[in-house]
Amino acid sequence: MTASDGGPHVHDGAEPTASSTLSLDDGDIHVCEDGPLDAPVLLLIHGSASSTRSWDPLVPLLTGSHRVIRIDLLGHGRSAKPADRSYALADQARRAGAALDRLGVAHAVVVGHSSGGMVATAVAEQRPDLVTALALINTGPSPDAFIAPQFPAIGPAQWPPADEQIRRFASTAFSRAGYRIPPEILDEVRCMTHHTLTATLQATRDYLEQRPLPDRLTAVGKPLLVVFGEDDRRWRSSSAADYRAVPGARVELLPGLGHSPLLEDPQRTATPLLAFTTIHAVRVD
């Protein structure tokens, strides 16, 4: 069942985004759609403590040639935030696949940012029929690539966190101190529950510890693009070289950008992404 969730919003100079809620078996999933319905599909999956909004600056650069679908993973954004459901990446991937099924999508290039790249990988593991290619943006390949934060974790007694705590938490998502963090990004952290945040972060660690991404992606055998901001403060950008172990993988480093190049420089992020999707996207008959 698909229900409207209160109306579209508009990107500058673009058609309104179609916004809806899909009622899945274990929670409601918020979905945004942009671009022509008959164009090749890109599924965009956000990272931990983020939402569909993190893709807003990039989407207008993609819709000239793609139907762009974004989802809020369970526990994030405008999707449900139940305390009694699994936040394991395999379950998040299953929901993403189910969302595409509900939307009548047979093939998609799946793009993930940060831990969203791990969810994208899990979708390809579960649904090789659905995924034609994968693009990962600043997704760490293994646990040892992670850069430990220099500030204390936010405990349940401190929830919801103060604005300064959220800014400190979000600051490492960008290449430089003093970057003006978009207020909507801070809002997405605030609207999560402590349980959904901690369960999501733990699920990311578990997925990587079970098997590094290059091993998983080699087994999946799908065309792969890896884009990495060279000044990432969450994952060592040198670790992007680990993906070269995946046969045919293309790795693009973006100098001067950090963990969130899709926000810091959408145009430079879109350039390699569009070159890749032009080759691997499947046009709707």
Quick tags:
8 helices, 285 residues, 10 strands, alpha/beta, Rossmann fold
General description of the model:
The chain is α/β, with parallel strands linked by helices and 285 residues long. It has a single domain, classed as 3-Layer(aba) Sandwich (Rossmann fold). It has helices at residues 89-102, 115-126, 163-171, 183-190, 194-210, 213-220, 261-264, 266-280, and strands at residues 2-4, 9-10, 16-24, 27-34, 41-45, 67-71, 108-113, 131-137, 224-229, 250-254. Helix 2 links the parallel strand 7 (108-113) and strand 8.
* CATH top-level class: Alpha Beta
Distance between the termini: 25 Å
What gyration radius follows from the Cα positions, in whole Å? 17 Å
CATH topology assignment: Rossmann fold
| Fourth-tier CATH superfamily name | Alpha/Beta hydrolase fold, catalytic domain
**What characteristic shape results from the CA principal axes?**
globular
Sheet of most strands: 10 strands, mixed
Which oligomeric form is depicted? single chain
User: How would you state the average pLDDT, rounded?
Assistant: 91
> Helical stretch count?
8
Annotated CATH architecture: 3-Layer(aba) Sandwich
How would you classify the helix and strand content by structural class?
Answer: alpha/beta
Share of helical residues: 25-40%
Low-confidence stretches: 1-14
What share of residues are in beta strands? Answer: 15-25%
Number of strands: 10
Number of domains: 1
**Order of helical and strand elements:** EEEEEEHEHEHHHHEEHH
